[in-house]
Amino acid sequence: MDNPTTDPGATVTQEAAAERCPVDHGTAAQQAQPGQRAQPAAIPATALPGPRMHPVAQILTYWFRQSKFVEQCHERYGSRFALRIRIPPKPLYVLSDPEDIKQMFLAPADVLHTGTGSATIEKFLGQTSLACQDEDAHKTRRKILMPTMHGKALDRITASINTMAKQYIAEWPHDISMPLHPHIHRFTLQVIREVVFGAKVPSCWDELHDRLHDLMSFNDHMSSAMILHRMPPRAVTLLARIPRLGLGRFLEQRERIDALFAEVVEERRNSGFVGDDVLSVLLGITHDDGSPLTAVELRDEMMLVFFAGTETTAVALSWAFEYLSLNRPVLDRLVAEIDAGVSDEYLNATVNEVLRMRPSIPQIIPRTVMKPIEIGGVRYEPGSLLWASAHLLHRNPELYPDPYAFRPERFFDTKPSLYTWIPFGGGRIRCLGALIGLIEMNAVLREVLARYELVRDDPKPERPRSRSVGVRPANGPRLQLRTRSPEPSLAGD
Q1: Are strands 92-95 and 385-388 parallel, antiparallel or unpaired?
Q2: Closest residue by Cα to residue 193 from 144, 260, 105, 248
Q3: How do beta strands 378-380 and 43-44 pair?
Q4: Considering the domain boundaries, does residue 29 fall inside one?
Q5: For the whole model, what pTM was predicted?
Q6: Residues contacting 268, CB < 8 A, separation 6+
Q7: Quick check: 374 pLDDT over 60?
């Protein structure tokens, strides 16, 4: 069981950083120059160590003890190791050395693909969205969508976030013990509504909101890891009849959501409204032959933004309240800063530290090797899957001394590095809406702590629980938001 405040750090085996181009251009070892020592030949990825337990046992262990499992593997096998947690049991090569991860992020787009790495969540996203594209297609679509989450659109979204934080958090249950994650997740859906639909809120939004929330609760089921589109339809039908799997409910909700998205698109087209929101931009995209995006393509892109923009931030905020409720000195200092209203320095540092301790995507989307590549003295052949572990990288004691301590001060007067702080992924597919997530976290923490004291029922830290691509506190976390008195006492009794 993970203990986020007292768990000892894993022993880190340091690997020598390879100071060469990440792409091996076909030679097993570089030719020695006069007076230089020859570089050793790269070892094949198949020689990397890893647990020998049966793949099914690895899958179960990873689901129920994800954080501890990868930490134990890191301690035993070093910064690179192989896991078999997919069906069929193809190895995933886990990287955690910062130089290895940097080289992976800098590899050319035609060498490492990400589009196939989202297979387990394609049941939500479909197979045509930005997350499933690579090379020029990905670059072009990303460039088109970028303005919907930056510039003037971001100003509009930020103002809406601050307004919604005051409106919705005032309506949260308080003075009773409750799991916070469901309320946080519903709030994040409201924020992404602003991103996707802008000022033109669909008439069916209330139903769409509730169904999206229900649909994404499927992520708490282990069956959410199934790659449905690769399974025979008959097998999916049979599995859907098993209530405990939650698959039947998921499929019903997905079908209804698809119909609602179709209604939204038709309503928007009939309205003539054009804004800087995601849907407005999507409706203006045409293919090379001049044809507009299909209904499926529109649905998939909207669903990607709802999925990626809510799951990641809701999990991060849940951990923020978990850590703050366990660390009174940090909480006291943060509340004092919020009450003073003159600076966000400690708030920003706290958000960065939460995302270091519990990155929204603990193991980022796998990269599929398309051309041979050498990283850190290991040669990966086409078809190999590379998996950068943000969880392990963020617990590297050489990067972050005393890494298991929750200490926002470590982010004072320093900007997180693109290659050593990767809570939302990295490289060319880093989350398009990462800045929105940070703004949202700041707004929610500021509003909740200005209104309420955080009171725990149980002083013991909550264990992590897998939720699709993320990990959340098992019980929510379960806290009481106690209405603050004029001179609040922040005791967690």
Answers
A1: parallel
A2: 260
A3: parallel
A4: no
A5: 0.88
A6: 200, 202, 279, 280, 283
A7: yes
On whether residue 489 sits in a domain, the answer given is no
- The neighbouring-strand residues paired with 80 are 95
488 in a structural domain: no
The answer to whether 373 touches 108, Cβ cutoff 8 Å, is no
Contact, 382 vs 372, CB < 8 A? Answer: yes
Q: How many domains does the chain have?
A: 1
367-369 vs 452-456, strand pairing mode: unpaired
User: Taking the CB of residue 163, how many other CB atoms lie within 10 A of it?
Assistant: 12
Kindly state the average pLDDT of the residues 17-21. 33
Place of tokens 């931009």: 281
d(C-alpha 308, C-alpha 470), whole Å: 11
pLDDT single digits (tens) 299-328: 999 999 999 999 999 999 999 999 999 999
In a domain, 15, yes or no: no
Question: Mind giving me the DSSP string for 126-161?
Answer: -SSSGGG--HHHHHHHHHHHGGGGSHHHHHHHHHHH
**Domain span including residue 445:** 43-483
**Given a cut of 60, is residue 10 above it in pLDDT?**
no
Q: What is the CATH number of the domain that holds 425?
A: 1.10.630.10
| Residue 197 reports pLDDT greater than 60 | yes
Q: DSSP readout, 230-292?
A: GS-HHHHHHHHT-GGG-HHHHHHHHHHHHHHHHHHHHHHHHHT---SSHHHHHHT-B-TTSPB
Tokens representing 368 are 């599929």
